[in-house]
Amino acid sequence: MATQQLEKAMEGLVVLIADSNPYTRRLTRMMLTNLGIKSTYESPDGVAALDAIRNVNPDIMIMDWDMPVLDGREVMRIVRSPGVFPKANLPIIMLTDLGLQSRVTAAIRLGVHELLVKPISPKTLQQRLLGIILNPRPMARAGRYYIPMPRRRVDFAEVINAA
C-alpha cells in the first residue's frame, strides 16, 4: 500500500480510547493525532466504553486492562459476544501495566488483537494500528472464546487450555 493510501487510511480511522487515567487518554490521543488520526473519542470507564462503541461505532478501540466500574476483561467478555453485542468484531488494543505471560494468555482468550505494556511509544502504537489495518484478522470461535484468528498456526486447544 502506498504511503498516501496509508495516510488516508489512518486519517479516516475512528478510534475509541478507554482508560480511567485522563493523562493516559490525553497522551494516547496526542500520539494518534500525530499519526494522522483525526477522529478520537474517550471513555473513562468500561460502561462508558460500551456506550461509546454502540453510539460512535469506532474502527478500533484502545483500552486499559484496569478501569473502574467494568474493567478491560469484563468489557472484552461483553464485546466478544456475537449476536448479543453489536460490534463483536471490533479490533481492540489492550494496554496493561503488567507484561506477564499469564496476562498475555488471558488477553488472547479474551479476544484482544494486540496487548501493549505501558508506557507505549508512538512507533509501537503506529505499528499495531498498521498491522490491524493492513492485515485484518477474521474472528473465529475457539471453544467458548471468540478471538481474532492467530497470525501463525496455533492449536486452538492450546489457547483454550493454557494456564
How would you explain this protein's 3D organization?
By secondary structure, the chain is an alpha/beta fold. The protein has a single domain (3-161), classed as Rossmann fold, CATH 3.40.50. It has seven helices and seven strands. The strands form two sheets. It has a five-stranded parallel β-sheet, with helices on both faces. The protein has a two-stranded antiparallel ribbon with strand order 6-7. Helix 4 links the parallel strand 3 and strand 4 (92-96). Helix 3 (46-56) packs parallel to helix 4 (72-79).
Number of strands: 7
CATH superfamily: Response regulator
The average pLDDT value, as a whole number, equals: 89
Q: What best-fitting shape do the alpha-carbon axes yield?
A: globular
Class per helix and strand makeup: alpha/beta
**CATH fold title:** Rossmann fold
Report how far the terminal alpha carbons are from each other. 39 Å
Q: Order of strands across the biggest sheet?
A: 2-1-3-4-5
Largest sheet: 5 strands, parallel
CATH architecture: 3-Layer(aba) Sandwich
Reading off the top of the CATH hierarchy, the class is best stated as Alpha Beta
Number of structural domains:
1
Q: Tell me the radius of gyration.
A: 15 Å
Could you give the order of the helices and strands?
HEHEHEHEHEHEEH
Weakly predicted, low-confidence segments: none
Task: Count the DSSP helices.
Answer: 7
Q: Strand percentage, roughly?
A: 15-25%
Proportion in helices: 40-55%
